[in-house]
Amino acid sequence: MNGSEIRIQCDNHYMSGYLSMPKSGSGPGVVVIQEIFGVNQVMRDITDMFAEQGFVALCPDLFWRIEPNVNITDQTKAEWDKAFSLFGKFNRDTGMKDIAATIASLRRIKGCNSKVGTVGFCLGGLLAYLSATRTAADAAVGFYGVSIPDFLEETKNIKTPLMLHIAGKDGFVPPPAQQAMHNRLDGNKLCTLHDYPEQDHAFARMQGEHYDEAAAKLAMSRTISFFKTHLA
């Protein structure tokens, strides 16, 4: 399935986004939120996968304010260095405004049923969590989100169903951080946390060092079911 590039209005400017449509031409919307490698082939493939599952899927270029059209992999040190440099420069608050603009834009796309969820990975996992506290998303899913414990005071603002996939051996999210998320979110009826005790960060990134097919399929099946329940 081949998607297309579109423009998404943010304030008085535009950022690009990769849009993939389901074969039916209509369905719920899903905003796919990038890792630190930009809108690369991994993100495009994930966006296409959601379209294959019946969603109108859109992946925005959230690094556009720093460097538009970042498209790198996790295969070389130089690319990792660039990715971490972009991560360090990224403004999360501004990024959340861009995600809110993407949600609004997706709702206006012909074929979207007006329900829109968000799903993010790594940095995107944090932003998906924040989309449940700061935006009008109808549901949110975060895969191995980084730095979520730094924003747990925002749990009081969660107003939409939220699912988090937590890697037990995540080098970027150590056990105390994982426990902090459970302590704060387990009692919230809107929140569902899934643990993958033997998995490391980015276990769902195909061809990544820590990719685990079984865990990735399980997490994605839970995500699809979650969205089909809350975005119908």
SSE layout:
Layout (H helix, E strand, L loop, with lengths): L3 E7 L2 E8 L6 E7 L7 H12 L3 E5 L16 H13 L2 H17 L3 E10 L1 H12 L4 E5 L18 E6 L7 H11 L5 E6 L16 H18 L2
Parallel strand pairs: 3-4, 3-5, 5-6, 6-7, 7-8
Antiparallel strand pairs: 1-2, 2-4
Descriptive key words:
232 residues, alpha/beta, Rossmann fold, 6 helices, 8 strands
Which percent range fits the helix content?
25-40%
**Total strands:** 8
Distance between the termini: 23 Å
Structural class: alpha/beta
How many structural domains?
A: 1
CATH superfamily: Alpha/Beta hydrolase fold, catalytic domain
Large-scale geometry: globular
Describe the protein in words.
The chain is globular. It is α/β, with parallel strands linked by helices and 232 residues long. The chain has helices at residues 41-52, 77-89, 92-108, 123-134, 175-185, 213-230; strands spanning 4-10, 13-20, 27-33, 56-60, 112-121, 139-143, 162-167, 191-196. The chain has a single domain (4-230), classed as Alpha/Beta hydrolase fold, catalytic domain (Rossmann fold). Strands 1-2-4-3-5-6-7-8 form an eight-stranded mixed sheet, with helices on both faces.
